[in-house]
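Q: How do we represent a protein-ligand complex in a form that can be generated token by token?
A: Start from the inputs.
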Amino acid sequence: MNTLPVVDLRSDTVTRPTAAMRRVIAEAVVGDDVFGDDPTVIELEKRCAAIAGKEAALFVASGTMGNQLAVNALTTPGDQVLLESESHIFLYEQGGIAANSGCLAHVVPGSRGQLPANALGAAIRSAEDDHVARISLICTENTHNRAGGAIVPLESLRALAADAHARGVRVHLDGARLWNASVASGVPIADWTATADTAMLCFSKALGAPVGSILVGDAATVRRARRTRKRWGGGMRQVGILAAACLHALDHHVERLAIDHARARLLAAGMRMPGVSVIEPETNIVIATLASPEAVPTVLEKLKAQGVWMVAFGPGRIRAICHLDTNDEAIERAMEAFQLAVTE
Ligand SMILES: Cc1ncc(COP(=O)(O)O)c(C=O)c1O
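Then emit the structure tokens for the protein with pyridoxal-5'-phosphate bound:
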């Protein structure tokens, strides 16, 4: 039986708070954030608004809550939201835009997460036609999870936003892993968020905080989202203990993402073998596609027996993510385990 520690590459959400992060959590100065007087939350929101070049920010429990609040704040029931067909908001938020905001999803297939330049032009109908649901919002995603952590090019996001704004359509950016896009590309967060009216960024993924995401945007939109957050039961009280972890992550866990990206490239190289194709990772996500899709469950079982955890990610696809709790030794073990699992 394998007695080595588990190498958990299922997601970058599996990280546990470091000892230093646990210390700042213990020492956090807190207030009641529903009354608006938790100083640590206020500090985090101010800092994130400044990083993103937006007027305001709202600390929320999860990426899903941040995305859903943005859709809710920027639409009216009966509107259409244009989404890339493999986006998280469309695939993995339980139809939330319909259930929470009464919106219809208009999905358009992209290429490595990138919507076609004419996506909106091809979809939009005359606002004068009383039969049609108006498109009021486009959601983009960067990095793109299903596309294997691909960085959607800045120029394409800029062009999409210019087209949207010229037509009176708003833009929300799902930036759960925007930190990774920024570190890998060298393009500051504010340049990416400038392509959107609102953006959501997660602390609980690559940055290694236990909980928390931030929604940034103009003051009126964020105010609206703050009210809805309360209605949805997301008003939290002495939540400075979590905001402190996020501030710590901003100070200590952003630049190091380059290490995760290098490890992902190493892991990808080690998983590339006959019968397995692996896209070159742009950030921290590795996607391997097996020539025999039916082999995925067996390969995952064999990996697990060797103490290496990855996940199935669509037909024939296996996903592994490098994160704060992986090290070089873990990556070596994962490569060897994968080669054995595929060949034996
Ligand atoms: C691209 C993207 N957006 C949003 C989310 C949702 O984040 P959460 O799990 O915090 O709700 C995820 C989660 O994996 C994600 O990958």
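Residues 59 and 214 are 5 Å apart (CA to CA). DSSP finds 14 helices and 13 strands in the chain.
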